[in-house]
Write a structure and sequence with these properties.
Elements: H1 2-21, E1 23-29, E2 37-45, E3 51-55, E4 73-80, E5 83-84, E6 87-91, E7 94-98, E8 104-112, E9 122-123, E10 127-130, E11 138-139, E12 147-152, E13 159-162, E14 165-166, E15 173-176, H2 179-183, E16 187-190, E17 193-199, E18 202-209, H3 216-234, E19 241-249, E20 255-257, E21 261-267, H4 274-289, H5 316-333, H6 339-354, H7 364-369, H8 382-385, H9 389-407, H10 414-428, H11 434-445, H12 450-457, H13 465-471, E22 474-478, E23 486-487, E24 490-495, E25 498-504, H14 509-513, E26 520-524, E27 527-528, H15 537-540, E28 547-554, E29 557-564, E30 566-567, E31 573-577, H16 583-593
Parallel strand pairs: 1-12, 18-19, 19-21
Antiparallel strand pairs: 1-2, 2-8, 3-7, 3-11, 4-5, 4-8, 6-7, 9-10, 10-16, 12-15, 13-16, 14-15, 17-18, 20-21, 22-31, 23-30, 24-25, 25-26, 26-27, 26-28, 28-29
Helix pairs in contact: 3-4, 4-5, 5-6, 5-9, 6-9, 9-13, 9-16, 10-11
């Protein structure tokens, strides 16, 4: 037994030594950026097998969809000792390279990059945005290996912006301690407008591509306020430096979080209006909050990652939904919205979920788990069958925050839960389980959350918004209450002068009456359809229970439907702060606002 143990220790030591000797270096260049290509060279040394499998990830963390990045790879070839060696593709995203234990292996391939989004690479003659999971391959079984990346900018390009650590003395060369770090570090290459600010003891770089009517000095001040407000929730900022990569287009939006950077999509003309400017700062707040929530305070399933398949979790309602909720809190605490607007924005968020038919079908936990097949693959019926884990999670965050503050008479809030879970993940060096998060909520609040979870997390019960807002002395009312307004319950779009149905709401007049998506709307009671049916006098002039005749063209054939008008079930919520709250309501409100 003793000899066996000694032998095992030696074997493990040799294995670890062999693994530690493997070196992986990448070089990325651009020969034809106008054609949207990156040239990638991957050098691997220290291999001790007859072959190595290299794989391209199939998805990008933070965006829960299998995107099949290998589809954009071409020209894969390999050399060992300066001579071509056999390489064959063995599955959709894996290439096997035979090298007869040669110490040095060079792999070359090209990547086509022409999809504008915060999660996919894009290259043209003005810049290259490299989303790492769609650019760099990894040797199978070696995700923990370090690597370096050398970028050779195209002629006339002079800057690289990334969260990766630079290699001292080597221009445009960066290092990653493992592939999780590399894949979590996008790169912007070109002539982006770069400026810096310091906040929360951290240096922040902002790399603006695409121009725009932004004021750099104003952004430095206001983005710093966002950073400080977010950091105050957790008591520490874990980064040494942080990079904002901002893509400004004629129309743009969205963001994707990374460990010490983010990619933001914006409209280049949004910065000189209050709504546009605050919209950008709200996006900054959302993505910056992610450096804690989901990147470090994370579900146990989300890291270390399996880049070869889906990574399932039922907790995206926390990871994304709570971040959507905290976007509002950060904007309030940074001084960009006032208390009244804060409450109104959250009332509108509740209304949005209440008005989604699918919220009565799919729970927040189910929406999280099925993100891979539903959220990023919507169809014409998605609104009837599901709910966004962003939207539902935001509402759950609101309700949970107020429940905790009320249970503790204003002593604690969701902030305390988030900070405690962040520190727990940091200490344990792993993500949290469903049970652990719920247990922390109950520990902080001092009450059971079994019923809460049954209703709002694992169930589909409508939010008791009057009760929860009432904890903080906020009165919320439904402006549609008692109006009994008739409605059809469909969405439409005008194409080349013709109006087509694009969605039909579950149990609406249109749903029950038999109208379908893709029907061309011709007339209502003989009156030609030229705008939305909901605004036509032929509908608005009727009463609930009246019947209208809707003529359509379906697959080129005329059809007429008798539609019985039902009452509009949607809510329109408005919030107002009670000017004479009780002592406990005032304590809850103060803790909730955090001002």
């Amino acid at each position: 037994m003793k000899k066996s143990i000694v032998g095992l220790v030696v074997l493990l030591a040799l294995s670890m030594t062999a693994k530690s000797q493997v070196k992986i270096n990448f070089e990325v260049s651009f020969i034809e950026p106008q054609a949207h290509y990156a040239e990638v060279e991957m050098n691997i040394s220290g291999l001790n097998k007859d072959f190595v499998d290299v794989k391209m990830p199939v998805w990008a963390p933070g965006s829960y969809l299998v995107r099949e990045f290998a589809k954009s790879v071409e020209g894969f070839k390999a050399q060992a000792g300066g001579k071509a060696v056999k390489a064959e593709k063995i599955d959709k995203n894996t290439w096997r390279v035979y090298h007869a234990k040669n110490a040095a292996l060079k792999i070359n391939y090209r990547v086509y990059a022409f999809e504008v989004s915060v999660r996919t690479s894009f290259i043209d003659d003005t810049h290259a945005f490299l989303s790492s999971t769609g650019i760099f391959m990894y040797p199978d079984g070696m995700l923990s290996s370090p690597s370096t990346v050398k970028v050779i900018p195209y002629k006339g390009w002079s800057k690289v912006s990334t969260g990766l650590e630079p290699v001292a003395g080597q221009q445009f060369t960066y290092q990653a301690s493992d592939f999780d770090i590399l894949f979590d570090s996008p790169l912007e290459v070109g002539n982006q407008d770069v400026f810096e600010f310091n906040a929360a003891g951290v240096k922040h770089e902002v790399a603006m591509y695409g121009g725009g009517n932004y004021d750099k000095e104003r952004l430095k001040v206001d983005m710093a306020k966002v950073v400080e407000a977010a950091t105050a929730i957790y008591g520490e900022n874990p980064n040494k430096h942080y990079t904002f990569i901002v893509h400004n287009f004629s129309r743009g939006g969205g963001g994707l979080e990374h460990l010490n950077s983010t990619v933001l999509g914006g409209s280049r003309d949004q910065y000189n209006t209050e709504d546009g400017y605050n919209g950008f700062l709200g996006l900054v707040a959302h993505e910056y909050h992610h450096l804690w929530n989901v990147k470090r305070l994370r579900p146990v399933a989300l890291g270390p990652f399996d880049y070869n398949k889906e990574n399932y979790t039922t907790n995206l309602w926390i990871a994304e939904g709570f971040t959507a909720y905290y976007e509002n809190k950060i904007m309030l605490r940074a001084g960009f919205v006032n208390a009244e607007n804060y409450a109104s924005n959250l009332a509108a968020a509740v209304a949005s979920v209440e008005n989604t038919p699918g919220a009565k079908v799919q729970s927040a936990a189910e929406a999280s788990f099925d993100a891979w097949i539903k959220y990023y693959r919507p169809n014409e019926n998605s609104n009837n069958t599901g709910v966004s884990y962003y939207s539902k999670g935001e509402v759950i965050g609101l309700l949970m925050d107020l429940e905790i503050a009320n249970a503790t008479k204003g002593a604690k809030s969701l902030d305390d839960v988030m900070k405690a879970m962040y520190l727990q993940c940091k200490t344990l060096k792993r993500g949290y389980t469903d049970a652990e998060f719920k247990a922390m909520v109950e520990k902080i609040s001092g009450i059971s959350f079994n019923d809460f979870y049954a209703k709002y997390v694992n169930g589909t019960q409508a939010a008791e918004y009057e009760k929860y807002f009432g904890f903080a002395g906020v009165k919320v009312s439904n402006q549609n209450a008692g109006k009994n307004v008739p409605y059809i319950g469909l969405a439409s779009r005008k194409t080349e002068g013709r109006m087509f149905i694009t969605a039909v709401s579950r149990n609406s007049s249109a749903w029950v009456g038999g109208l379908n998506v893709n029907d061309e709307l011709i007339s209502v009671d003989g009156i030609p359809v030229e705008s939305s049916l909901e605004r036509m006098p032929a509908v608005t002039g009727k009463k609930v229970g009246d019947v209208v005749k809707v003529a359509v063209s379906r697959d080129g054939l005329p059809k007429t439907f008798a539609i019985t008008l039902k009452a509009n079930p949607n809510v329109s919520l408005v919030a107002a702060l009670d000017e004479k709250p009780s002592a406990q309501q005032l304590a809850v409100r103060k803790k909730w606002f955090g001002l």
